[in-house]
Amino acid sequence: MHKLFVVMGKSASGKDTVFRDITQREELSLKTIVGYTTRPIRDGEQDGREYFFVSKEALLTYQDENKVIEHRAYDTMHGVWDYFTLDDGQIDFETGSSIMLGTLESYGQIRRYFGEERVYPIYLEVEDGLRLERALLREKTQKKPKYAELCRRFLADEEDFKEENLKALGIIKRYDNTDRELCLAEILKDIRLNMGI
Ligand SMILES: Nc1ncnc2c1ncn2[C@@H]1O[C@H](COP(=O)(O)OP(=O)(O)OP(=O)(O)O)[C@@H](O)[C@H]1O
Q1: 27 lies in a domain?
Q2: Is the CB of residue 139 below 6 angstroms from any atom belonging to ligand 1?
Q3: For residue 9, which atom of ligand 1 is closest to its CA?
Q4: Pocket probe mutation, ligand 1, options 10, 17, 18, max atoms within 8 Å of Cβ
Q5: Staple partner for 131: which of 11, 98, 126, 182, CB 3.0–4.6 Å?
Q6: What CATH code is carried by the domain that includes residue 162?
Q7: Which residues have a Cβ under 8 Å from the Cβ of 186 and sit 6 or more positions away?
Q8: Is residue 197, in this structure, part of any structural domain at all?
Q9: In total, how many domains does the chain have?
Q10: Which pTM was predicted?
Q11: Per the database record, which ranges form the Guanylate kinase-like domain (predicted)?
Q12: What is the DSSP code string of 42-75?
């Protein structure tokens, strides 16, 4: 059965890293669903790879056209940043399985939209201290590090990912991303199981 895999986790839990590792496995033939955002592009990112970076005006047009599957808006230190998934033909269960990055909120909306039997959550976890270290190291490599935003996100994650929220969405399995290789092996095993391959 064709599925949609959604990679989730708190900030700096390794979503982008794990996502890249999974999608490099060509034998899985997973189609990569790229989300949309109005936040500014970060150093090292590429339009259409991590996200499609679009204007607020573009989002409003898509909303008028009823093309937005799920949408989240975050009030950051740098203004409102929108993240959304567009019904632009990328997700097609007839032609194959796909994978995307998500949040708990987007996962909930997407699960409701497509049905829970079609959507499989890949929820990453890293011990808080290690995760904060990784977040700080990553931020230091940016031309203009945004440390206050880093702290805001770290604290916001506490609320967003609380146990009752995970439970409400049926997320039981956690993928521990302390060790990249072990984590990836566990995820690949479950993806294959889900796809029946
Ligand atoms: N298993 C791992 N071991 C060591 N470092 C890791 C591991 N996974 C990710 N990292 C590093 O941790 C940092 C955060 O990872 P990544 O950017 O993939 O997280 P993210 O969940 O996508 O973050 P955000 O949601 O904040 O954008 C990166 O610098 C990445 O290289």
Answers
A1: yes
A2: no
A3: 21
A4: 17
A5: 126
A6: 3.40.50.300
A7: 175
A8: no
A9: 1
A10: 0.88
A11: 2-192
A12: PTT--BTTTEEE--HHHHHHHHHTT-EEEEEEEE
